[in-house]
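Hey team,

Sharing the Carbon-monoxide dehydrogenase medium subunit run so nobody has to redo it. Sequence (307 residues) first:
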Amino acid sequence: MTVLQHDDGVSSVWRPLDAAEAWQLKRAYGDDAVYTAGSTLLRTQWEAGTARIPRHMVDLSRIASFQGIRRQQHEVIVGSMATLAELRRNPDIHAMFPLLTEAARNIAAPSIRNLATIGGNIGSLIGDTIPALVIYEAELIWFDGQQPAAQPILDWLESLDSPSSSERLLMQIRLPFPISDSPDGSTEASEYRPIAFYQKVGRREVFTPSVVTVAMQALLDETGRFTEVRLAAAGGQTRAARLERAESVLLDRELTPDLLAELYPVILDEYSPKGDPFASADYRKSTAANIIAAELWTAWNQRTWKE
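Structure output:
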């Protein structure tokens, strides 16, 4: 482990070689220490005065198990230190998880994406990759001082108010293969028509938190009925969540204009964003409902099934 001394307000930068060392340092220094990855968000917070410069920084960049993106038998493993630029360029992510590629493309400028990591984006709690990860039912691999443990991303989002959640260290993100991309060559999903989109709406596309971010993945059978639906929304300071009531309206129903008319008020009622001086909660609600309705209307206009 390397220790660097600084005189710019940070007493020490610690560079551990494994998760156990990093966790022990954070445990020892408590609130006087922060984990750092690309540090892009931290620098923004320090410059804005919304976070204090810590006495100790625990740099995770030398931990080998946190690096890279690799394909395994039934899943893709993304290290928490993988940059957003790596995420965007990776062929397996692009082929099997295109909404995640699109999410990475919509975050900040290229110079920032070269430094910013997916772990930092998730750690912000409102990162733009999170809705896509929710749609793909990702699992987060944490280190709690003893051993790695997997947690579905939705369970993590629901546990954020728990004090123990802040003591863990994110190691990796596990993405299970979609059915049609299984290593055994299964084509079970090939007869179905997919609907997938990721939309981020903001005052400026990449330099500010989004007003609304919506992600959806669904399958239609040969009659135009939804056989699978996953729909998530976030934006601003609102944490990502599945819109389960909206999903239930669509599931096992044929995509029609009447169905979209039924869906719209459900989204307005279910999605609960936080307003701010730039966009009210009602504006965010209507924006999310409009995005979803417009995307599904496009899918209906491109339908191939018989009415």
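Residues 193-301 form a domain with the Enolase-like; domain 1 fold (CATH 3.30.390.50).

Ping me if you want the raw files.
A.
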